[in-house]
Amino acid sequence: MSEDRRWGQSDPALVHWIEDHRRRVLEAYRANPLLVAEHANQEDSYRTGGYAERQLLELVQNAADALHRSGVRGRVELRLTDDTLYCANEGEPFTQAGLEAVSHAFLSPKRGEEIGRFGLGFKSVLGVSHHPAVFSRSVCFHFDAERSRLDLLAVAPDARRFPVLRLPSLVDIDYEMKTDEILRELASWAQTVVRLPLSNDRPRLEQELRDFPREFLLFVPNVSALRLTIDGDTDSRFEIEHRCVEQPSGDLRLEGEADQQADWRVWHRTYRPSDEALAEVSEAIRREEIRVSYAVPLADSQQLGRFWAYFPLADETSARGILNAPWRVNDDRTNLLTGVFNKELCEVAAELIVAGVTTLATRDDPARHFDYLPARGREAHNHADRYLTDRVPRIAAQTRCVPDAEGQLQPPTSLRVPHFDLRLEPATHRAWHAAPGRPTHVPHWSCYQTPTRRARLRSLVRVEDNRASESEVGAAGWLEMVVPNGTDEQCWSALQIVATVRDDLTRQDMLAARVLPDSSGDLQRLDRTDDVFLRGDVLSSTAGLSLVRASFLDGHDTEDALRSLGFRNVEPALQLRKLLQKVDRGWGDHAWTAFWKLVDDVSVGEAQSLLENHVTLGRRLCVRCMDKSWHTVGNVVIPEVVEPRSASLTVDTEFHKLHTALLRAVGVVARPAVAHATLHDPTYLEYLRIVRDLYLRDMPPRGRPDLELLHFDAAEAVGPLHLLRRFADTQDPASRQAWTHALLEAEAPERVRLGHSNRRLFPFVREVRAPHLWAASTYGLLATDWGSRPAKEALGRALIEYSPLLPVAQCAAAEKLALPKTLDAVPTSVWREFMTRVPVQADAWRLGQLLTAAARSLLEETPAQIPALSGTSGVLAAPEEVLLVHAEEELRALSGRRLPYVAVDNPEAAQLLIDNWGCREASAQLRVEIVPETPGGPVILLDRFRGLRPLASGRLDGLELVECQGLAREVTATGGIDREPVDLAQDGNTVYYLASLEDEDLLVRLAEEFQLQLSNPSITRILSDAQDEQIKSRIATCRVERDPAKKLLRLVDTRTIESKLPAGLLQAVRRIGEDGGDHQLAELLLHVHGYDVLRELRHELEEAGFPVPTQWAGSPPAVSFVRQLGFPAEYAGERGQQLEADLTVPGPPT
């Protein structure tokens, strides 16, 4: 009861103030009725505006302010019944300032750390109640909307709305205590109780009570407990008490139900806004000092932070925790506004975050505070969050905020960090941190424990998010930091670190680290799997190969780890590949011998590929020669086509017996072959330079292409070519000649094209002679009848008829060279040499042709001697002693005399030799005559023997054959006349022959006379063809004759006719003396045999070559035959006629 009495002891001054205030307000309204509508509209704005749903928040804030003003900690309780909301608090009871604040607007006296502002928050009760009441131990009053309407209606009868909170009225506390049990309960401990009979929104209020943010207690240190109660039955009743208890560490613990406690750490800072900031806010809410608070949950750092104005705003921040301050917010009191005022508060908040979060780091988790920092580089939640995400990292970067490897906080710029674009797993950082050689001046591995922490570290280290800082190192450099001394343990830890990396690109970058110890004491890169090997042999050092340090390889599971990275033992193929890269001009017998022994250990296919590629790149490769010396490929040859005089040019086939295919692939061959290796042959390159120069010479000075970009279009070439020069250097003409011939016989294009790699800019292509033909022409030797000669001094095969009088190339393939093909093209140097050589061929006519051509070429020169014939031998004679022969008979006449001569076939040639060199006509020394006896009629030689035409090459054209019974050659000279019998001789266009010569013998003599190449089969064929021609001629002449007797004489000779006549008949006719000659004999034969005369002569006709039928007796073949001869069909016999067994022919009378 004493407590109740204390409640009834109101402050008289406050009672008087209420009564006086009511009177003065009504007077004011009477004096100015417009104030009624004005104040009513103001209250309506509180009811519907930003304060419309802030009843709980505003009531609790006012309660907290009362506790703050009292200077003691106390409790606050919110209770909701079915129809009423209560708010009770300890602390300072109502004062006159409080009365003025709730009865007016914008007059609240709260300053500094107080929450409420000018009584505006209390106006929010109009949103849920028409009869709010305040029960304080100092004074009790209420507001009644209906009473206010009635009181003001008389003052402003036209008003539609009436203010409620302008006319407070005193209440009877004793009565209220008796009638309101809840009020009485709350009043038992509270200094002030606000009661709001609800007009609406109870469900919302109930939900807000259930969801009330207990973190509010963190920013009102005078509120020790906040009790929230919703009356109802067992199922719907809600009751909880939130307490804020300071821990020995200074942290605050929010307690409620047993499982709902949470520890927080809170920092506060008082700030005095600048005049510019204060000018931005209205006088009603201006404060000279502002407290900014930052609270972070110690157990949960994953939730986004939020801006509070003692109660949550809608704005979030990536900084974890709560940033509480009297922000300048919008009318709805939900979002921060932009401006200088809030910017200054954000700057204070940024500094508070940096100063506060570093205290969260622990020994076990030195990077714990990273979880609370804002995220830079993400899309900001709002303008205030954007400010914090930019400023917090910048401010923090100037402080000791990053834990080093020992967990001590250091300035970010003092630490070395792996590049942030690397994708490193937390396990990688832990392995790196555990490495025995790792340095201290690096971030602690816990900085990389989560993506959030990595992002926060990035924002602390980088001034600009998209630009790496100077303290960042690449993956390789970062890994190398753990092997400062290159010990086995340090290097093993580096391998363990690599094994934790999952990202392929990062792993690839990391493999460039030099952390692998080799046997020479150096550290090699982990990606040098082609250069560093696990285990090797003595050749490994020769090849310059690096081996992993043996002690390192034998420890832990090092070998397995390295094999997983691609390292392996030195295999023969690998060693060969590396050895090829180390080939040096200084290699001697030992090195090259070991090299080829290694080749033997590699498969043929792989070795061939490696060696061929090596030579293709123009690199050095030597083979052993017969003298045990070593020479590069392209300068040696396998003995076969050539047997070099110098052993240094001959491959040691015994040493290289297993390398035949390999040598061929790299251009070491027994005979020239098409190979890529030729493209690096010195002679090939010499020719390429020459052709390039010629190409550029034809181009204008400006715009000429780079020489190095001009190449022949063939990817391979015949070679080797340089051997020709090597054979020349070693005085080995036989090998040089044989190799030249082999080059010429190689099957390869004879022309190549020189072009530019960019055909669009340089479309012109020059076609030139193939390199191997140029080499043969320039450095080769050709076999001629004058011996081996440089190709440029030999003559083409088109002049083969003058061999051996001229140096005509004997090799048929020499036609591929541009050698002289006519006598006019023969160089004068060859003609001069020709004048000095004794003829080795007794062909006066060819020798005469050559002398004529020589005279034309050497017009201004008169040689001392010229080649000629004497008898059948060649000689050198003074030009004036040489006789010029024009006929074969003159040749025969001179061949037996010891006079020098040549034969010329036309007067112009003779005159040239006479005029230029003083030669003489042979006719001035002797005369030759052919003397025939009983010559017959002339026959065209080629008509007689048509088969000779294709063999004579025109030499028999126009010649006639004349048969004679005797034949002699008479030579008239100064010594007298010589007569010589001959069987065949030519005089002009007439060829005389003895009648005693059979056709076969005649053919042989003609072949000898005119130098025709006739074989026995050729002679048989020609005779057969000649016989056929004779038969056809005799058949034709027989057919045109009318007289049967004359017909028979065209078919057979008289000797054959006589043999078919009865012996007595022929004797009787001759005895009578009636010899009518050959015609009479033919008539007698017709009389004897009649129509059977042809059948009687059938055997003789068949032997002569006539197509005699086998069957007569009027058979079709017989009829055809006799008609072909011009005889009537009766001469073919009668069909069915049989011959008698005996035939009696009367003989002469006895």
From TrEMBL:
The lineage of its organism: Bacteria, Bacillati, Actinomycetota, Actinomycetes, Micromonosporales. InterPro entries: Auxin_embryo_med (IPR052957), HATPase_C_sf (IPR036890). SUPFAM superfamilies: ATPase domain of HSP90 chaperone/DNA topoisomerase II/histidine kinase (SSF55874). It comes from Phytohabitans flavus. Gene3D superfamilies: Histidine kinase-like ATPase, C-terminal domain. This is ATPase.
